[in-house]
Design a protein that fits this description.
Order of helices and strands: HEEEEEEEHHHEEEHHEHEHHHHHHHHH
Shape: elongated
Radius of gyration: 30 Å
Strand order of the largest sheet: 10-9-8-11-12
Helix content: 40-55%
Number of helices: 16
Length: about 425
C-alpha cells in the first residue's frame, strides 16, 4: 500500500489531491514530503467569506507538518493561491488542512493537543521532536474550539472554590459543574473578588442562572454575596470540607497554646507530638495513636475538651431532617459557648451566622458533595505542578480548561490517538 493511498483513506480533502510523495534525507533526520495540488477547474475559496472566487496569483510553496509516520516527520507541500474577492479584497485561499498562518496541519495540532492531556507539554515536544510553542498553540486551538462548541444546557449544580496559582496570595476562582451526569470545569476567573464571580454569572447568562438548583461554595464573603444576588433561588450548600477546616485550625490553636502554658509551668508535656492525634478521625488512627489518645482523654485539658466538641459536631451529619439537625446545631453551639475555649467559641459564632446555609445540605438530601470540588482542586494543583507553575494567567487558563474542561472535539475521518 502506497503512502498516498493511506493519506486518502485517513485525511482526504475536498477539491485537493495528493501528488508526488518522496523521501528527503536531511542532515539530522529523514523526512517524507507529499505534494498537494488543487483539482482542475476548481475555484479557490476566500479565507474571509468562504465563497469561491477567481484566482489572483500564487504564493511560494509552504510546508505544513503532518502527523509523523513510524517516527518519521511528514510534511504537506502546497503553493497557496490568492483570490480576488469583491467583498474582502485580495486574500489567501482557505486551505482545509491548516488554519491561518500556522505551519501545523489541523490533524497534527489535534494530535499534539490530545497527547498534551496525557503528558506535560515539554515532554510532548521532546517525544515528537517539535517546539514547546507548537504544543502550546495546539492546546490553545483545542481549548478555543472546545469552548466555542461546548454544550451548557442542563447545568443544575455548580461548585465554586479558589486555588492559589502564584506566590503572594494570587488566586484563581474556579467554577465546576457537579451534576451527577456531568462533572467538569466550567469557568476560570482571576482573583477571588466580588467582580470575579459576577463575571461568571455574566458569562453564564441570566436564563441558565435561573435553571441552577444547587450551589456549593465555602464561606468566603464575596462568594456568599454574589450567589445571594444572582442565584438566590438555588439551594446554597456550604462546603463541609472548609467547615471542618475551621474546626481543625481552632483545635490546633488550643493545643499549641496549652502546650506552651504547660511548659511555662514546668508540668509534664503530655501534648507533645499529639497534633495529628487530635486532628485525625478516630477510624483513621493507628494502633499506637489509639493507645496514646485513650491516655490523653483521661486528663482535664482544654485540648481534650475541644477534641470532644469537634467529634460531637460530626454527629450533625447523621441527621436526615433539617429541623432536627438545626436543633442539634443550636444545642451544640450553646454548650460550646459555655466551654470557655475561645477558638471553639469563634467557630460556634461562625456556625450560628451561617446556620441557614449549613442546613441547606440536609434540604439537598445529601445529593451535593463538596468532595467533587476538592477532587477537581487537587487535579488543578496537579496540572500546575506538572507545568512547574504558570507565568501568565492565559497559560494557566488554557492548561486547566484543557485538563478539566471535558471539552468536545470535532469529528474526523480518523483519530490518530
Amino acid at each position: 500500500m502506497q503512502l498516498k493511498t493511506i493519506l486518502n483513506r485517513i485525511q482526504k480533502f475536498k477539491s485537493f489531491v495528493y501528488a508526488k510523495a518522496r523521501w528527503v534525507d536531511r542532515a539530522r533526520e529523514p523526512e517524507l514530503e507529499v505534494d498537494v495540488v488543487e483539482r482542475a477547474n476548481g475555484y479557490p475559496l476566500c479565507s474571509g467569506c468562504g465563497c469561491p472566487r477567481p484566482g489572483y496569483d500564487r504564493l511560494p510553496t509552504r510546508r505544513f507538518e503532518f502527523v509523523p509516520l513510524w517516527g518519521i516527520k511528514v510534511f504537506l507541500l502546497y503553493a497557496p493561491r490568492r483570490v480576488e474577492c469583491p467583498e474582502c479584497g485580495v486574500r489567501v485561499e482557505s486551505m482545509p488542512w491548516a488554519s491561518g498562518k500556522s505551519h501545523l496541519t489541523q490533524a497534527y495540532a489535534w494530535f499534539l493537543a490530545r497527547w498534551a492531556r496525557r503528558l506535560c507539554w515539554k515532554e510532548v515536544a521532546v517525544v515528537f521532536r517539535t517546539s514547546w510553542e507548537s504544543v502550546f498553540r495546539s492546546v490553545e486551538m483545542a481549548v478555543e474550539w472546545g469552548r466555542a462548541h461546548q454544550d451548557l444546557s442542563g447545568v443544575q449544580a455548580i461548585g465554586i472554590d479558589e486555588i492559589a496559582w502564584k506566590k503572594g496570595h494570587k488566586y484563581l476562582t474556579l467554577v465546576y459543574q457537579i451534576d451527577s451526569h456531568c462533572k467538569r470545569l466550567l469557568w476560570i476567573g482571576r482573583e477571588r473578588k466580588t467582580k470575579t464571580l459576577l463575571g461568571f454569572f455574566r458569562w453564564f447568562g441570566a436564563e441558565r442562572s435561573r435553571g441552577l438548583k444547587y450551589i456549593c461554595s465555602d464561606m468566603w464573603k464575596p462568594y456568599l454575596k454574589v450567589i445571594a444576588k444572582k442565584a438566590g433561588h438555588a439551594v446554597h450548600v456550604l462546603d463541609r470540607f472548609h467547615i471542618m477546616a475551621y474546626f481543625s485550625k481552632a483545635l490546633d490553636n488550643v493545643r499549641a497554646e496549652e502546650t506552651k502554658a504547660l511548659k511555662a509551668k514546668g508540668l509534664e508535656p503530655m501534648l507533645t507530638k499529639s497534633r495529628w492525634l487530635l486532628l485525625k478521625r478516630p477510624e483513621n488512627l493507628t494502633d499506637k495513636q489509639e493507645i496514646k489518645l485513650a491516655d490523653l482523654l483521661q486528663y482535664n485539658l482544654k485540648s481534650v475538651g475541644a477534641y470532644l466538641l469537634k467529634e460531637e459536631f460530626q454527629l450533625c451529619g447523621t441527621y436526615i431532617s433539617p429541623y432536627w439537625a438545626g436543633r442539634f446545631l443550636d444545642q451544640w453551639c450553646t454548650r460550646t459557648m459555655r466551654s470557655k475555649i475561645e477558638p471553639m467559641k469563634k467557630v460556634a459564632k461562625m456556625l450560628r451566622r451561617h446556620k441557614p446555609l449549613l442546613l441547606n445540605w440536609f434540604r439537598a438530601k445529601g445529593q451535593l458533595s463538596s468532595g467533587v470540588v476538592e477532587g477537581f482542586n487537587t487535579k488543578a494543583k496537579l496540572t500546575s505542578r506538572k507545568s512547574f507553575g504558570f507565568r501568565t494567567f492565559h497559560g494557566a487558563e488554557i492548561a486547566l480548561y484543557h485538563a478539566l474542561g471535558a471539552l468536545p472535539e470535532p469529528e474526523g475521518t480518523h483519530r490518530f490517538c
